[in-house]
């Protein structure tokens, strides 16, 4: 009887399928200037809080910046709305605009829908032109999508903890 109970407990507590994402690429800035950027990978949920899967450090680049974000997820949000797919969103916070310094811009790029398949790893490369793209201003980080895991931009323009990408 105790073996049956242990087996039943194992079945009930079995692990949900885990899907992994490896997203990388380049960000183009058409202006002849240095710019700063940070990239965040979200699993977008229209009915639930969005999951921040990974983020880069704030980086500095000249015309071309590179990024890599990786994450994994096992649930598409509330069970009632779980369609078995992950909707990925790339958020790019950057200073590639004609203005120097603040305000930065926040640009959301929808990457598509990916099936939740246990053990599956999706690896994709995306090139994004961020030239003057996205909403302007500090409050856009908490903007219309109300993402969970919002980024703290205090010190975004400072050189501390900055990765250089040339």
UniProtKB/TrEMBL annotation:
Signal peptide: 1-17
InterPro entries listed in its UniProt record: Transthyretin-like_sf
Key words of the record: Signal
Top-level taxon of the source organism: Eukaryota
UniProt-recorded name of the protein: Intein C-terminal splicing domain-containing protein
Name of the gene encoding the protein in the UniProt record: Cnig_chr_IV.g15424
């Amino acid at each position: 009887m105790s073996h049956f109970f242990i087996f039943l407990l194992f079945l009930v507590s079995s692990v949900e399928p885990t899907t992994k994402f490896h997203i990388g690429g380049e960000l183009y800035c058409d202006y002849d200037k240095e710019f700063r950027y940070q990239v965040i990978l979200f699993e977008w949920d229209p009915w639930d809080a969005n999951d921040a899967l990974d983020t880069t450090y704030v980086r500095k680049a000249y015309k071309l910046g590179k990024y890599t974000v990786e994450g994994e997820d096992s649930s598409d949000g509330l069970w009632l709305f779980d369609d078995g797919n992950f909707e990925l969103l790339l958020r790019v916070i950057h200073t590639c605009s004609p203005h120097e310094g603040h305000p930065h811009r926040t640009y959301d790029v929808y990457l598509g829908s990916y099936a939740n398949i246990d053990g599956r790893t999706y690896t994709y490369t995306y090139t994004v032109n961020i030239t003057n793209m996205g909403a302007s201003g500090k409050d856009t980080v908490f903007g219309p999508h109300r993402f969970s895991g919002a980024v703290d931009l205090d010190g975004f323009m400072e050189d501390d903890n900055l990765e250089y990408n040339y």
